[in-house]
Fold these 3 entries.
Entry 1:
Amino acid sequence: MEVVSYPHLPAELSRAYIALYTSVTNAGALRKRIINAASMQGREGEDEREAVNYAFVDPRLITSPLHVKTAVLQAVMAQAQGALRTKTVHSEVLWALNPSNNISEAIRRYGVSEACTALLVVRVDGSALEPADVERKMGAAVQGQLVPLTQLGRLTDWVAVKKCHKLNNELALKVCGQDGERERAVIDNIVVSSVAMKSVMG
Amino acid sequence: MTAAPDILAEAILISQGAEAAIYQAILHQSPSSEATPVFLKYRFNKQYRHPTLDASLTRSRIAGEARAVLKCLRNGVHVPGIRLVDASQGILGFEWIEGKSIRMLLGGGAEGEEETEYTADLLEDEDAVDSPEDELQSLYGLTPDVLMAMIGTEIGKMHLADVIHGDLTTSNMMLRRMFSTASSSTVELVLVDFGLAYTSTLVEDKAVDLYVLERAFASTHPDSEPLFATVLQAYGKTMGKEWANINRRLDDVRLRGRKRSMVG
Ligand SMILES: Nc1ncnc2c1ncn2[C@@H]1O[C@H](COP(=O)(O)OP(=O)(O)OP(=O)(O)O)[C@@H](O)[C@H]1O
């Protein structure tokens, strides 16, 4: 798990905890749990919502650690400025990742689905949380193997990324020819840039 | 005046201009991964403008700059990637380009040093300092002629994407070394500062863009002026069949420029 800090933001938004899991076995169940938690009543409902109070992201459309960090930063800044376009800072992360403005499309594309065998988990919170505690709670929600964020890029479905960001006919990719490594770096730079500037894209 | 955004509190101020301040900053601080710096441009409020008007003006300038850069990225023009946009506070963040501006490499000195040009003459006979040409050769392995061709090619790629830079000077171009593997590296010419950029397909706009650079060359690098032909040659090669029209229009633009300066 990686702990990113934003010392310039209000205390309650000053940290993001980002973890990557592979060999995930409970994606389908987790998805149902998230949906059910939303409508559960009373104390039980609160506990259940807290247990899944994360952004769960499908890493197949994520090109690098910088890609997810850029989305998290834009979401945290929107929250700090009272400018969220979605309900929570966690759904805002999914919104920031998606090229269009449609939030349900963002959740469908970037959120957890039954087919996920790897998951990226993000929690935005203050500095009062113990990282070890966060990691334990994430591990309680996701059954899988915790791996370093540097694995991002190896789990990527590059064909899907190109389609999602409409990159197939772009000159920047054509000039890479057979150089796959270079092409992936070019794609990552375009995708990261698109996420960073999404708020002025409209 | 509103307080400076908090994100700048820990950033390093690099330069303070009339329209914007430039900083180097770390966006994602994390003990477990390497910190990569970004280049932040902060367009602060103008006290003499109406605050609401100012905010929407800043917003549209930032949106315009970011869109032009993204268009360049998609078209394979070498520009810094975008790393942060905060339109409400007037902040744009770019990938940090490790390298030198062409202005420095051609011996143009730092910006705002024009008034003290005579000091350069005084230093001329001291051969202690590396000449810019030596630096170009030792740091990047380039001759001035090759550099000029790189400039022309990059501008050509930008114009083929119908992006007009609006402020082409040698300060707004940088050289950086890209390491693909441990042993091999390439040198890239990177275009920066798209604050005045816009999209246009017009021959006139492309010709004026080139003319601005030609004038900038003449004033900051009088010795390199003959080399400008190489810029145009490489540009023309990149532009292909569009070049003949732009070249003709460039002649018109030069003529208009000359007339204006005779009157003025
Ligand atoms: N992404 C970058 N990384 C590192 N250095 C950069 C980057 N972009 C620009 N620079 C350097 O900083 C200088 C100033 O940048 P820029 O031109 O964008 O700012 P500006 O305030 O709009 O300048 P001006 O209005 O004087 O042209 C450039 O001349 C260049 O050498």
Note: Residues B 17, 20, 22, 39, 41, 80, 94-97, 101, 111, 171-172, 174, 192-193, 195 surround adenosine-5'-triphosphate (CB under 6 Å).
Entry 2:
Amino acid sequence: MTTKPKKTVDPSVLKEEMLRKYPPKVARKRSKQILVNELDEQGHSQEIMSNVRTIPGIITQRGCTYAGCKGVVLGPTRDIVNITHGPIGCGFYSWLTRRNQTLPPTPESENYMPYCFSTDMGEHDIVFGGEKKLRQAVQEAFDAMNPKAIGIFSTCPVGLIGDDVHAVARDMKEKLGINVFAFSCEGYKGVSQSAGHHIANNQLFKHVIGLDDTPTEGKFKINLLGEYNIGGDAFELEELFTRCGITLVSTFSGNSSYDQFAKSHSADLNCVMCHRSINYVAEMIEKKFGAPWIKVNFIGGEATAKSLRRIAQYFGDKELIERVEAVIAEELPKVKAAAEEVLPTTEGKLAMLFVGGSRAHHYQELFHEMGMKTIAAGYEFAHRDDYEGRHVLPSVKVDADSRNIEELEVEADPARYRARKTPEELKALEDAGVEFKNYPGMMMEMESKTLIIDDINHYESEALIEKYKPAVFCAGIKEKYVVQKLGVPLKQLHNYDVGGPYAGFGGAANFYREIARLVSSKVWTYMKAPWEENPELSATYVWE
Amino acid sequence: MKDGSPFVSTTNACKLCTPLGACLAFKGIEGCVPFLHGSQGCATYMRRYIISHFREPVDIASSALGEKNAIYGGGANLKKGLLNVMDKYGAKAIGLATTCLTETIGDDVKMILSEFRSEFGDLSLPAILPVSTPSYSGTHMDGFTGALRAAVDVLAGEEKTPAVNVLSGFVSPEDIRHLKTICRAFCLPATILPDYSDTLDGGAWEEYEKISPGGTPIAAIRAMGGAPASLEFGRTLDPARTAGGLLEERFGVKRLGLGLPIGLRETDAFMAALEELSGRCLPRALGAERARLVDALVDGHKYVAGKRCLIYGEEDLAVGLASFAAEIGLVPVLVASGGSSGRLTSAVAAVSGDILREQPQVASGVDFYEIADKAKTLAPDLILGNSKGYRVLAKELNVPLVRVGFPIHDRFGASRVIHLGYRGAQSLFDRVANALIEKKQADSDIGYGYI
Ligand code: SF4
Ligand code: SF4
């Protein structure tokens, strides 16, 4: 397998080549979703078309609104019973496939993640309505599990037959005396999972966040938003925070529990990892309760150090700053040493990342630390702000699909709003480099002449691979075997395959080793049998 | 529709949704791209699921309907989607399955397709194989069976062929390869439908293949109406809904309904049918496999005899496993399935009634919650089924799970699990015996070196 491009590839030419194969209408659309990265004089990136509908018949990486809501955001919470209201498939396919881990405080504590509850609608329910069955399902789940909260998730047919899931939730809440809430996250509602994230954010905010005002112990209290504990990432970070003396009030939603959500408004800072899936909660908490948010990234050794320093800087406490520095001083050299070890196998090689709404950006850090270059990247379901930065938000066109999704009107809570910093303090922090409410996006940080491709499809991936012969391609399991058939290893970055954790210092070292294993494996050289390497020889051998 | 279940909801289902089965069947037709008419989420989920079992590329296209289409109908998107699939894949056939969404809004696929044909009749159109697959009635097996019937419905003609039809049901790629070997041993030309032995378990590619190579050739399906006979596996099938049934009704192709040839006796029955069709006696190589199997059953009887076993999975698979379990000396205590054909109980009785002193409990239309509930009092020593029963059943009860069927995503090599024929029985028997031995060894303080 070659790891360096045989000859230099001109990305603009490649783009033209890719587009030429499409019918004119498709080509026009795709041309706005495929960009050769170039920043203007102000350091701003170009405009990319994203968060638009996938073209029918063209196979996409994307999932549906329900997947984003039930699977991504609520899936990792262990003690809410999630009931899928719909026919059996939707629930079945979202049953523990993301490798979110959870650690209940005791073996007896509630953990419903191994269960997949569904109303399993039948023909009768479709014709006559499914509310009755839903009510019964909620009752059954309550009788069987006795949970403190139940979430109801709508699938496509539910919206179409007009079941009022919210009314059922209200009634059952009253009847059972526990929290019951519903999500109108029918798969067809948005263009991808992304709509489901938003719906999940809204309902959590309306029905759970802020329910518990008991004060949380701790001097430096934060929430970690957009961290889903794939492969144990959250465990790694939790330990890191503990060592630094930072109190983690809640995580949305890796290794999380209902009670954490309920008191998350008591934290003094929200740290956002995956901007796409959770920024709405960060914004709403700030408006209603006053805690500001910053963007963090715990993927990569340097990035982890930087994010910890930002948190310490925000609290401005000398002791905390020292403690954080001590942890960094202890951990970072180990990470550096691990990078040194893999450098001979990884340096100079090419990577491509097409995944999610933040990982295609965050993981570039790790490749950078390994001396690898990210030559092409793109998101599966992100929006313009994830590519170009939040400063473009005012100019993002709201299309019909996004208009479907409620924007909650949030106001400061008269009793509970508490500004965490004075305007002067905030200003001083900003001057010192702490950026609030900002995500600069992926494109700013990518080199010029790299390719940015939104919602990539098979055909385009194949063209990229053929031209660049990258050493590793990062995407999900759906893409994995096509890419590997072509002799290029694929690293799953949705659920990490069997690996992880990759977050924090320990995670970074894990990732280096995993990539080194992938790019140096002998297996790829066996794809051709020895006699195939040398055509003349094989000819004589066969015919004589 | 649960038989006598106290629950209306489903917890940890023991079935998958209808269009997934249809997609699997379509993957076994050469040059065919499965296509779901509905929102893209269903296609993505199903691809993900099928891929994690087979570890192969699986493309399933979709008409990617949005809210607007859900309200006003998805015809335009369907047509656009079909054109794009033709264009990008050069598909020879498109297996078009509906989803709950398009079934609920009542999209008239037949009508949309006839419009499509008249609008684009000037292009060379692939064969479009439409099947209606609402998940709110049926399971993945109904989708599987329905898709095959649809394929035959559209394609089959009367042209004569010496090849017998083998409708082998939802089996593994290794099983299909083994069926080919068996037919070859009988010198009997055969059309196996579906044949995903290459498409879902193929090698590395020299260059990018838009559609995975392999599958039952379309020309062969066209000739299925002129075949001397059809062998159709599955004791719980209703011929009125199968491809074999259609071939018999429409073309008079004699349908021989058999059980999935799992275990000794069901394989014997299959071999007898092949002897009859080919006019040959059991080939030596297969005879030797049979002899080895019987020998192993004798040698290994001490490990398995009297052990209580719990079986779950698709109905026909469960029937085959029950038959196998009974004949090797296991005691099946529960045979369970998420499917509800209404024929599971009688089929289990038919294959094990003459061997077992007591019939096992049979539960159809159940989920793992109920299976686990029943299992508590049944004290099984062994479980036969797919990966889905691991956590709530095998792990909870601390009982070995021998993984068979679909999905298997916590073991490697699912495509190469062999269930059928004497060889399949041999492999199953070895695995069952070893699972029991391993458990005994692990649980004992003595640490047996010989066992
Ligand atoms: S809507 Fe129907 S077809 Fe789609 S995943 Fe759900 S059950 Fe399956
Ligand atoms: S039916 Fe709708 S909610 Fe269910 S998987 Fe398909 S797109 Fe998603």
Note: Chain B touches chain A through 76 residues (CB under 8 Å).
Entry 3:
Amino acid sequence: MTTIHLNGQDREVDAPDDMPLLWAIRDVLGFTGTKFGCGMGLCGACTMHMDGAPIRSCVTPISAAAGKKITTIEALGKEKVGKAVQEAWVKVGVPQCGYCQCGQVMSATALLTRNPSPNEEEIETSMAGNICRCGTYNRIKTAIHTASESLKGGAK
Amino acid sequence: MSPMFSDFSFVNHGIDRRGFIKSVGATGALLFTANWTWAQEKPAKKYGGEGMPGGTKSDAKLFVAINHDGTIDITVTRSEMGQGIRSSLALVVAEEMEADWERCRVVQAVGDEAKYGNQNTDGSRSMRHWYEPMRQCGATVRAIIEAAAAAGWGVPIREVRASKHSVIHALSRRKADFAELVGVIASFEAPDPISIRYKSPRTYRYIGKEHTHSADAASMVSGTAIYGGDIRSAGMVYAVVARPPVLGSTVESFDDSEALKVKGVLKVMPIEGADVPSGFKPIGGIAVVAENTWAAIKGREALKVEWTSSPHDSYESEAYRQSLEEASTKPGKLVRSVGDVEAAFSKAKKTHAATYYLPHIAHAPMEPPVSTALLRNNFLEIWAPTQAPQAARTEAAERAGLPLEKTRINVTLLGGGFGRKSKADFINEAVEIAKAFPGRAARVQWTREDDIRHDYFHTVSGEHLEASLDRRGKVSGWLHRSVAPTIASLFGPDPKHQQAFETNMGHSNIPFAIPNVRIENPEIAAHARIGWFRSVSNIPHGFAVQSFIAELAEEAGRDPLRFYLDLLGDDREINPDELKDGWNHGEDPKKYPVDTGRLRNVLNVATKEAGWGKRLPKGKGMGFAVHYSFVSYVAAVLEVEVEKDGNLIVHKATMAIDCGPRINPDRIRSQMEGSCVMGIGLATTGEVSFENGSAKQSNFHDYQVPRISLAPRSISVHLVDPEKKVELGGVGEPGVPPIAPALCNAIYAATGKRIRRLPIGDQLA
Ligand code: FES
Ligand code: FES
């Protein structure tokens, strides 16, 4: 039994210590917004925030998350930056199949939280771990700038 | 929390909430000026949507329901896998209905071909087959709503008109929201289709307009969109399957003692596989069923399986490449012949030959195959990200020993498809598990390793071209031999030759003004499951043809653009039959000729916009390619830089597409952008190679797909207006074929290095 602080609530998870956070949250707790793409920390589809930093939940055992603050896509819209990123994504029309996009949005939110005005290189570095097989990268860049602008523009 | 299903409804809409539209009656209650000009002679052969199994349907009541609050449910029967079709088709209905998009909701149809018509989401044909039926539905509903309003106000129908979710009677300044009319429209019958008035394109709000209206974008970025793995049910079981590593191999023996010790593992069970050719059926193996995905994965790791030997054990990619190239240099089955190539070659001032190689590639959709099945009370229900629900349903029903009407298949969103999810193998695995766990939903999850190792791989090919140049530097003779295992090997004794639908993808049907042409297809056997990959055989054929033309331009000492335009010759419409293309993507050759003027046009637009001919610094170069496929015309110009260490940077991609009339321009752009990135990926790193019969690659570390840094710094997409009235073309696939050759032509311009073997890999180092 591990207790994690998920999206603002303490949750007890009955799972073996080595179960990746991804499967614990999807299968045991039933939040399916976070996606499985590779299981090897290679694609970013499973990105969550642990104590504010983006992590690959497919290679993070639940034991490593004990007592930690975990945010998944389901709660991201409650945060100012997360909401701005989601809105920018819709406005720019980023998603194609959408499967990678929760992970992209999680990574972009972490980036903009840390660095409100990233340049192209910083964007490429921060987003390098998130694969989009549909190839929406150019719009991802545009949407990050859009979100950055909207956050600077006085946070409506 | 994702939805739990407690009943048999995927999308829950209470029937009593809506006002039903009555069936289309032959005797329309509404009379409009009949417009007979649409009538045509019935062609003997059926083309387009009508030529597909199940055809199309345009009965408005199947697709449109108006709720009492005035919101509209629009049913879309095609699968959403990133092309935006759920939004685009629904927008067509909304447009003709004069509905407000904000008040429309898209409902996904279950798989039911008898009811909805063909649902196979492939071949880049959803819009060109379903635009007219959806328009008709929208216009029909609008006619009914207008009639209801007119009757209510006691005014002639011609005096009212629907606009932005209301009906207006201007003379009396009355206006009624659709919501106010829901109660009365039920008593109105649909007009006879021939009397339907369509909106004037001048009044379009959605069709052809730049906007990003999407039925799904908001849910996709908030985690609420439902994909194949997101259906949940109490007591659900989760399975992964150990599958034979080599085509044709089966389980010799297995030891599940350790697997069963893994906490959470419930059962280890064999799944029977179909013999080769296995079609879309599962290839068998051993399933580990557990209480959660992780336990199933751990259980499979602990499982020991011995596999039987197979005639394909010796499949080895390097040796196969050699046999492909060897076969491509010898005469093969004649596909098309014009004039006398030998004579042209012997009279030539110069001849040139080149052989190209393109390896297998894996689809690797971001969402690996996954599906859920539940067998309960003699009823089978499936939730799956499928491109072909009807085929999946039919096979699942057979497997479960149930009649079709006792089987329901819900189509979830697809986390990418690219052709992989047309095959029902992964769905039928779930059915097998469900049979062993009656009353409990059973999910089969493919890991990425499963996905890459057991894909229906894109073919592997050797492409040999020879051509002669006459004294004026014009191409006088053209020989193209393409050798590649065929998709047909999935379904019957391996024919070893490409089928019409493969060779008609840029091999036989080249439209160039060359007097002597010979197209051949030597034989080669398949040793893996070969399947459709986005744009299919256009990839190898387009790559070879477009690379070779650039090589010929070089041989002739001419600018590639001028050389290419000369090769196209005068603008003309060519009947595909003349190009030995009797398939023509299933379209009427009269409506869909191959139009060299449209090829020229997109090429001119793309090269002009890209600044073709401008001087670039050392290490930089520009290349183009243009390709006709899926009855659309796409040109791409890539500007690249190759750094000293061989690092490749794609600075700019400029694409131009003529896909006929445009319905949802933003989704055309996004498909071009995505095709560009995918094309760069397959050119640079896309390769699945075989050793001892099995795929060597398994995940994104050794099967690399583009990351953000490999995407072009900018992609500009130009939507080209055809210079004449033409039919709708495809969008999802035709953007892919020109990318790899444009890239390699650009690399040549930058470095002088000609890439004839994909992927580029470390060839630039
Ligand atoms: S699923 Fe975790 S990085 Fe791919
Ligand atoms: S939108 Fe499909 S994988 Fe990114």
Note: Chain A touches chain B through 63 residues (CB under 8 Å).
